[in-house]
Amino acid sequence: MSRVIQFSKAGAPEVLQFIEAPERALGDDEVRIKVKAIGINRAEAMWRTDVYIEPVKFPAGLGYEAAGTVEAVGSGIVDVAVGDAVSVIPSFSMNQYGTYGEVITVPGYAVVKHPPSLSFVDAASVWMMFVTAYGALVEDAKVGKGDFVIVPAASSSVGLAAIQIANYAGATSIALTRTSAKKGKLIEAGAAHVIATDEVDFVAEVMRITDGKGARIAFDPIGGPNFPRLISALSFQGAAYIYGALAEGETPIPVLDMIAKMASVKAHNIWLTSGDETRRKAAVEYVTKGLASGALKPIIDRVFKFDEMIEVHRYLEENGQFGKIVVTV
C-alpha cells in the first residue's frame, strides 16, 4: 500500500484526497517508480476542475511529471532497470495514469533516464516545459538566427523554457510580462528583451525592437481578448502558436489582419511531440544536450512537500510563481 492523490468530483483544491492504494498489477510495457519529486503543471489544475482538453473519468488521479527510482519493470521493458534514476515525460492521458503518488505506475515509453547532473527536483520539472517549447519553436517553426520570438506569460515554467529554447536555437526572445516587477529576473533567465504590457504599448515595442518588421513567432498560453494585438505584432507570414487558455472569455481571430499579414495560428500541445516515438526521442536528445551544456536549466520557483498538495494547488492558481513548482515525496 502507498498513498496516491485522487478526486471524486471537480472543484477547488480541497477535492484532492489522499488514498491508501494497493500496487496495481504491472503490465508488460509498464514501469513502477518510487517517487522522489513531482513536477506541478497548470494542466493538472484544469484537470481537477474538469475543464481540460478531455473529460475526467471519476474517481480520478492526476499528474504528468515525476522523478524517482525504478522499483519494478514489466517483461517488455529494456531501456531502464530496477534501481535506475528516472523521470516521466508527459505522454499519456491522466484518465489512464497519474504521477501524484508515493509509488506510481506509468507506461515504459514515458520513462526517461535523467542526466546525472540533475537533482530529483530538477528532473521532475524539465520535460513538460522544455518539450512543449521545443515542439513548437524547434520541431515545427524551426526558429534560428534572425528570428524574433514573442513569449507571453514569460515567467511561467513553459515561458521561461521558451526563452531558453529560443536562445539555444539562435533566435531572439521577447518576453512579455504584465509589470516591470519581474523584468530583472526575466533578463537573468535569458530574455533578450522584456516588455511590461500594462505599462507600454507592447505592439509598438515589438515593432521598435524588430525595426518595424514584427516577430516571426509568438508562443502564447493566454489567448483571450488581447490575442488580436499579438497577431498585430507578428511579421509578414508570421505564426502564433497557442497552447493554453489562461485568459477568460473568447479568443477573437482578427481575420483581415491575418489576411494582410498572411499570418497563421496553430494550436499546440506537447502530445504532437511526446506522443510520437521518433519525435519524442529527438526531443529528449535535444533537451538532454541543452541541459548538459548549460544552455537549458530548469528554474524552480518553490518546493513543497507531498502532504501540502492542496496548498500547492492554491498557490498554483494565484499565478504568482516564477518558474516551476515542485513537490517532494
- CATH class of the largest domain reads Alpha Beta
As a percent range, the share of strand residues is 25-35%
The major pleated sheet works out as: 7 strands, mixed
Distance between the termini: 15 Å
The radius of gyration over CA amounts to: 20 Å
Helix content: 25-40%
Mean residue pLDDT = 96
SSE arrangement, N to C: EEEHEEEEHHEHEHEHEHEHEHHEHE
Counted beta strands: 15
Kindly identify the CATH topology of the largest domain: Quinone Oxidoreductase, Chain A, domain 1
CATH architecture of the largest domain: Alpha-Beta Complex
Shape field: globular
CATH H-level homologous superfamily name of the largest domain: Medium-chain alcohol dehydrogenases, catalytic domain
Unreliable parts: none
Q: Based on helices, strands and strand pairing, what is the structural class?
A: alpha/beta
| Oligomeric assembly | single chain
Q: How many individual helices?
A: 11
Could you explain how this protein is built, in words?
The protein is an alpha/beta fold and 329 residues long. It has two domains: 2-125 and 299-328, Quinone Oxidoreductase, Chain A, domain 1, CATH 3.90.180.10; 128-271, Medium-chain alcohol dehydrogenases, catalytic domain (Quinone Oxidoreductase, Chain A, domain 1), CATH 3.90.180. It has helices at 42-48, 120-123, 126-140, 157-169, 183-188, 202-209, 227-232, 255-261, 271-274, 277-293, 309-316; strands at residues 2-6, 17-21, 30-40, 65-73, 85-88, 103-107, 111-113, 148-151, 172-177, 193-196, 215-220, 234-242, 264-267, 300-305, 324-328. The strands form three sheets. Strands 3, 4, 5, 6, 7, 14 and 15 form a seven-stranded mixed beta sheet that branches. The chain has a six-stranded parallel beta sheet with strand order 10-9-8-11-12-13, sandwiched between helices. The chain has a two-stranded antiparallel sheet with strand order 1-2. The longest helix is centred in the C-terminal third of the chain and has 17 residues, at 277-293.
